[in-house]
Design goal:
- The complex is a heterodimer.
- Chain A is an alpha+beta fold.
- Chain A is built from 3 helices and 2 strands; from the N terminus they run H-H-E-H-E.
- Chain A is elongated.
- Chain A starts with a helix and ends with a strand.
- In chain B, about 25% of the residues lie in helices and about 30% in strands.
- Chain B has 5 helices and 10 strands.
- Chain B is globular and about 60 Å long.
- Classes of the chains: A alpha+beta, B alpha+beta.
- The interface between A and B is large, with 42 and 59 residues.
- Strand 1 of chain A pairs parallel with strand 9 of chain B, so a sheet runs across the interface.
Chain lengths: ~50, ~200
């Protein structure tokens, strides 16, 4: 499915294709599919109950 | 010539995907998003693009966050962003299990993993929408909140949903869309029976 998107003409016409991956997600698979880490987003959350 | 691929541009795909501007409020510390139709979804009710100004203390941001949520019934309070300084300064205020990191990755190299010839990928059209929704039903047969939320953003963010079929059966789905010339691919949702059937890397 990622190959389909990587080769989609509209996607290829953009400046970049990005995918986000959580720390516990399939990082290695995405790297094998040609993706490279370029930064991170962070969040904090808590429950008030 | 294309503009540099900055973290600002990559992160914006996340903010645009999630936040319907009809339900956002600009605050001194970022964009507060509260979608009343999805009041139980954390990603639809959070402070985004969070930035702690250099002359402000973390406590002032945390107090402001409480005030933002005080007009809601939401008990799970969340803030997200991509400003390293902000999150470094906030870190001492949160135990490890209240923090979460998401990597932003860019397609730059030749894939080592070949396409799986056993998967037929189709763009979702009206006649395939039932297959798409069926991939996102819970054990009670109801479409998950997460999928309803993602689908509700579709008309606003555009792009395309795709389904992967194995032996003619819907096995996985995902979506891609474009924000300011950055194409964003969402994670893949795959049925249990269809997992780990890809060919090995070259």
């Amino acid at each position: 499915m990622i190959h389909y998107v990587q080769n989609h003409p509209v996607v290829r016409a953009q400046d970049a294709l990005t995918i986000f991956c959580n720390d516990d997600g399939p990082l290695r698979v995405y790297e094998e599919l040609g993706f490279v880490k370029r930064g991170w987003m962070r969040e904090f959350s808590y429950d008030r109950t | 010539m294309s503009r540099p691929i900055t973290l600002d541009r990559l992160a914006e795909t996340e903010y645009v995907e999630l936040a319907d501007p009809n339900y956002t409020t600009l605050t001194p510390f970022g964009t507060f998003y509260h979608h009343p139709e999805f009041s139980k979804r954390h990603d639809a009710n959070q402070l985004m693009r969070t930035v702690l100004p250099a002359d402000a203390e973390p406590e002032s941001l945390l107090e402001h966050l409480e005030a933002l949520y005080s007009g809601t019934t939401i008990t799970h309070h969340k803030m997200s962003g991509h400003d390293p300084s902000t999150f470094e300064r906030l870190r001492p205020h949160f135990p490890e299990d209240q923090g979460h990191t998401t990597w932003t990755m860019v397609f730059e190299r030749t894939p080592k993993r070949p396409p799986n010839p056993g998967i037929e990928v189709k763009a979702v059209t009206a006649e395939l929408e039932t297959d798409l929704d069926d991939l996102h039903r819970n054990e009670n047969g109801k479409i998950t909140d997460g999928h309803r939320f993602a689908r509700a953003q579709g008309p606003r963010v555009g792009g395309e949903w795709v389904i992967g079929y194995v032996d003619g059966r819907p096995a996985s789905s995902s979506q891609w869309f474009v924000v300011d010339r950055i194409a964003r691919f969402r994670g893949i949702n795959t049925r249990e029976w269809a997992r780990n059937r890809a060919p090995p890397p070259r």
